[in-house]
Design a protein that fits this description.
The chain is an alpha/beta fold. About 50% of the residues lie in helices and about 15% in strands. The chain has two domains: about 10-120, Serine Threonine Protein Phosphatase 5, Tetratricopeptide repeat (Alpha Horseshoe), CATH 1.25.40; about 215-400, Vaccinia Virus protein VP39 (Rossmann fold, 3-Layer(aba) Sandwich). The protein starts with 11 loop residues before the first helix and ends with a strand. The chain binds S-adenosylmethionine. S-adenosylmethionine binds near residues 203, 210 and 229.
Length: about 400
Amino acid sequence: MAELPDNGAADAQTWLSRAAAAGDVATAERAYLQALAHDANLIDARFGLGVTYFRSARYGDAARELQTVVSAGAADAAIGLLLGKSLYLVGQFSESVEAFGLASRSMPLQGDSLRCYARARTYAMMIAGKTGDALADYPAHAGVEAEPIDVVIRDGFGLLSAYGHRAAAIYLGELLIAAKPGDAVQRHLNDAVAGRAVDHVPPAYVAAHFDAFAEGFDDKLVNVLGYRVPERMAALVQRHCASFDHALDLGCGTGLAGAHLRPLAGKLSGVDLSARMLEQAERRRIYDTLTHAEALAHLGAYPVEFDLVFAADTLIYFGKLDAIMSAVAQALSSGGIFAASVESTSNGFALLPSGRFAHADDYVARCAYPHFELLEREAVDIRLEANAPAKGALYVWQRR
Ligand SMILES: C[S@@+](CC[C@H](N)C(=O)[O-])C[C@H]1O[C@@H](n2cnc3c(N)ncnc32)[C@H](O)[C@@H]1O
């Protein structure tokens, strides 16, 4: 990252030139912010900052800056297109349609912009309750760029549920399950978005979801969603104990935690329900054993075997926690460590539209208390969810 010396003499235009010449987005962002600190009305700096945020995948921030440019009456087609795309990516579909409309006054929409506009228009109509009309009108709005309607429906389901538009998402979820009644993934997501009383994620959902996701998992979680739970939780564990005879990575997935646990463990095992995730973990050549099994069943088969059980982003697939807490306790030796992450909610446990569970701190404490003493709890952002941080916590307990 290039240095940006400020001897106090640089003015807004100088910062603007530095921003435009910057070789990376972090340097450009700082220079645009300096320019705006000198002159908050410098529209070129607002536009540049908006573009920079867009390039950093900070779409909400990008939309805010670009809106300022539009409000100042300085918008052109390029700004309309970028604003339309940014608003689409943060789920503001009707505002996205307006922004694309601005661009289309001076040039016809085409390619990705036309596809994005047609989807935004369709999803905005669905949110307004005109679901059937929205689907019927889609081909006319998308023109030559029309995508297969099942793709528009499937992506719409994901976006509308992620951004809290439940009625529209439920409608699309019912279309999807009618087309594929045996789809365990869709069935569970429909339960989640409809708020049905479910107390665990069905194993068939977990296996199918992660088998499909395995190949792109590391890149998506680490580079796109900023997931750092494995290393942060391993560091937290080490504050209490830095050496274990046999550690179990529970729901090890592709083995992101493996490199952080390997130096701590004489023997390192992993277990997971997804065969494809385990294949990725196998490639790391870091675990002594990897087992394809359901977590509760696996723990039950190894009484008093482990002195560390490490569950990064795994309890989110369990709603009720008493059975898993008890199974972990029985598989741990006395004084053994259990480390786990959860997503947070305010009361008991809740199935989120994402299909994962969130847990309240006092509920977690109640389930842990019969078996474990709490050594440490740390509040963290688990990963991005619908472009905002998913709040959660890391726990380290000791077996009583
Ligand atoms: C979000 S991934 C996290 C993977 C890994 N722990 C990490 O931090 O990168 C959750 C993993 O838990 C596994 N999983 C969920 N429920 C499970 C269960 N009941 N038994 C075994 N594995 C499970 C999934 O297959 C998936 O690989």
